[in-house]
Write a structure and sequence with these properties.
It is a single chain. The protein is an alpha/beta fold and 208 residues long. 45% of the residues lie in helices and 12% in strands. It is built from ten helices and six strands. A hairpin with a 2-residue loop joins strand 4 and strand 5. Helix 1 packs antiparallel against helix 5. The radius of gyration is 17 Å and the shape is globular. The N and C termini lie far apart (40 Å).
């Protein structure tokens, strides 16, 4: 096990035993996340649901099956991507995560991003979107990539929203199909040495 793998294993253990918010008292299992340590794509959802809480794995219910279908449509598989959530424990009755809970889990997500270091972060739903697009509406910015340093943030609707609405499901499918071309562009960009540019914060991409 190399150093990064050790760091991730330690982080996962900290999440599983985390006492930092009231969800520690109501969870069955915390859900750190899963996927290869060298994943080029990280998907960040909202919070575990009933099935995730039981199994300790992210996206294993209906939303997870839809997510796997979406990945396949883009020529990707679950085994190629890292999947996690903004909040690592299930909120009771699947309610929205509270600000206190999101804040308690934020350092875990920061560390996951640092260890995995993905090229693309796909935010699934408004709670993970808010981390990178504060004050924005998912209905307005979904499918529009934004550069954040060496990384690209790609906002999408949560798969659960697609299960409730055929119209939203069509939008999710359309957005996911943009990911392979975006990834190829980032790979090509990384293969060349860019000219240094001033750091002006996140920049909107015009890739599509």
């Amino acid at each position: 096990m190399n150093e990064r793998e050790q760091e991730l294993a330690q982080l996962n253990e900290e999440v599983r035993t985390c006492p930092l918010c009231p969800l520690a008292k109501t969870r069955t299992n915390a859900v750190p996340g899963e996927g290869p340590i060298d994943a080029e794509i990280m998907l960040i959802g909202e919070a575990p649901g009933f099935h995730e809480d039981k199994q300790g794995r992210p996206f294993v219910g209906q939303s997870g099956r839809f997510l796997e279908e979406l990945l396949r449509s883009a020529g990707l598989s679950r085994e190629q991507v890292y999947i996690t959530n903004v909040v690592k424990c299930r909120p009771p009755e699947n309610r929205d995560p509270a600000p206190r809970e999101i804040a308690a889990c934020a350092p875990y997500l920061d560390r996951q991003l640092a260890i995995i270091d993905p090229k693309i972060v796909i935010t699934l739903g408004r709670h993970s979107m808010a981390r990178y697009f504060p004050g924005q509406s998912i209905s307005k910015i979904h499918g529009k990539p934004k550069r954040d340093g060496d990384r690209v943030i790609f906002p999408m609707f949560h798969p659960a929203a697609g299960l409730r609405s055929a119209e939203v499901a069509a939008l999710i499918r359309e957005d996911m199909l943009k990911v392979p071309a975006l990834l190829e562009e980032l790979r090509a960009s990384a293969a060349t040495t860019p000219e240094p540019v001033p750091d002006e914060g996140p920049q909107q991409l015009s890739l599509f």
